[in-house]
Design brief:
By secondary structure, this protein is an all-alpha fold. The protein has one domain. 88% of the residues lie in helices and 0% in strands. The radius of gyration is 33 Å and the shape is elongated.
Amino acid sequence: MKHTKLIEKYLQNKASAEELKEINRLLKEDAAFKANLYFHINLREAVRREEGKLLKEQLKSLGGKQKKNGGAFFPVIWKIAAVFVIGLGILWFYNQPNQHEKNL
């Protein structure tokens, strides 16, 4: 049980100086501890690699969907924005006081 806690702390980079000394001593003297530590290190790396592969696959699938839907979605947004800007321009133009109103 104590060895498991040491391994967990070591893998999380939370081991104190005394615990690191104990880990180094166990690595030199205890073959079972050494095998267990390396097993956990390799397991952790394998999980990271698999998670990375899954993430890449998910991003690729999302990227493909976004390109398919993005072609239809973004032009609509630009059209709406253009109509809004033109509408603001028209409102501004027609709400300007003319020369006769300025002189009064």
